[in-house]
Amino acid sequence: MASILSFIHQHIELIYIVILSVFLGIEVISRVPSVLHTPLMSGANAIHGVVIIGAIIVMGEADADNYLALILGFLAVILGTLNVVGGFVVTDRMLEMFKSKK
Amino acid sequence: MSISVLSVIYLLGSVTFIIGLKMLSHPATARKGNLIAAGGMTLAILGTIFLYHNNGERLHNYGWIFAGLIIGGIIGVMAAKKVKMTAMPEMVSLFNGTGGACAALISIVEFGHMTSIPSKGNFNLTDAISAMAGAAPGPAGGKLLIILLGLIIGSVSFAGSIIAWGKLNGRIKDFSFRNQHIVNLLVLGLSLLTAIYLVATIDNHVQMKLTLLPDPKLQIVTAPIVKILFYLVLLLSITYGVLFVMPIGGADMPVVISLLNSFTGVAAACGGFLYNNQVMLTGGILVGSAGTILTILMCKAMNRSLRNVLIGSFGGAKAG
């Protein structure tokens, strides 16, 4: 218990960021027209690909003799990149389609 | 110096994500918004690769990192360019699944670091003595809590997204059995309880061991039960992800994908806590909250409630 409290104390600034971001996220997209639901979902999908940064750090800090960490980290980098690159390209294609319709 | 440049890059990245989401919600600016967010992401990735360091230690394994980026990038672009317009939602689901898997893998590796890698470099006798006296030098419980959260949410999102992908392209049929919602809740509950037990008892199970000969070394010794339970949590979470999406009908899939999308956002934010990394945190939480609201909006557009979508199809007990 004490260790959890001290963890919260150590990360209090991050916790403030979390709370403010929650409200910001709600506010930012609250008036989206329904035609944009799918592209927005896809765009948000690409943005959470930011998890790739964690994968890069894991990979970059793995010791050269720790094969499990190397392999899992390598997989994580590939999967994360797929999420980011694929996500943004698919979103762009969806929105391109919107334009040609009009 | 480089770490302060990196902070500014992360700040810029976070701002581009907010602006990107904002612009994505207006038809006229949507495409530009997507590009702005992509630009911010590229900046954050390159910044991490070249500027990140932890206690003065830079990243290594550059070969692996670039190989991963190139392989992932090429497959990503090819898949995204080739997919038919009608198959885009399932593609989004697949990419969402890879993000969830990435978050879960990060948790697995970090758990390994926490429980078995001998700590080296910053060897400190005071830490070692206080560890021997029973007071762990770091807040192990809090860190493990974040690792487990990332693991559970990431693997539920991964398994669920893969099932959703399979359903949308017709490879997986609807499947449900009697009282499935009870089984589902049991699986989820068991996974969460195991995780809570791990967090509560980690300080008793993980001990620092000091060896002075032949050279002074501080090692982490973990009871095997901790590892077994950790992988049990992983297994249960994946099972829950599969069971959770299985009974939901194909027409409701976009709503489910949007929900899983916001899950992955939260899993990414757990990484932000783990590495004290603001861009992962803001990006993840923004997607988590915006994704949840978007899920509710999508339900409304279909004239249904989220409750209805998630449990309406169970057991056929629901009328209308």
From TrEMBL, chain A:
<dbReference type="GO" id="GO:0008750">
    <property type="term" value="F:proton-translocating NAD(P)+ transhydrogenase activity"/>
</dbReference>
<feature type="domain" description="NAD(P) transhydrogenase alpha subunit C-terminal">
    <location>
        <begin position="15"/>
        <end position="99"/>
    </location>
</feature>
<dbReference type="GO" id="GO:0005886">
    <property type="term" value="C:plasma membrane"/>
</dbReference>
<keyword id="KW-0521">NADP</keyword>
<keyword id="KW-1133">Transmembrane helix</keyword>
<keyword id="KW-1003">Cell membrane</keyword>
<dbReference type="Pfam" id="PF12769">
    <property type="entry name" value="PNTB_4TM"/>
</dbReference>
<dbReference type="GO" id="GO:0006740">
    <property type="term" value="P:NADPH regeneration"/>
</dbReference>
<protein>
    <recommendedName>
        <fullName>proton-translocating NAD(P)(+) transhydrogenase</fullName>
        <ecNumber>7.1.1.1</ecNumber>
    </recommendedName>
</protein>
<keyword id="KW-0812">Transmembrane</keyword>
<keyword id="KW-1278">Translocase</keyword>
<keyword id="KW-0997">Cell inner membrane</keyword>
<feature type="transmembrane region" description="Helical">
    <location>
        <begin position="12"/>
        <end position="30"/>
    </location>
</feature>
<dbReference type="InterPro" id="IPR024605">
    <property type="entry name" value="NADP_transhyd_a_C"/>
</dbReference>
<comment type="function">
    <text>The transhydrogenation between NADH and NADP is coupled to respiration and ATP hydrolysis and functions as a proton pump across the membrane.</text>
</comment>
<feature type="transmembrane region" description="Helical">
    <location>
        <begin position="42"/>
        <end position="60"/>
    </location>
</feature>
<feature type="transmembrane region" description="Helical">
    <location>
        <begin position="66"/>
        <end position="91"/>
    </location>
</feature>
<dbReference type="GO" id="GO:0050661">
    <property type="term" value="F:NADP binding"/>
</dbReference>
<keyword id="KW-0520">NAD</keyword>
<keyword id="KW-0472">Membrane</keyword>
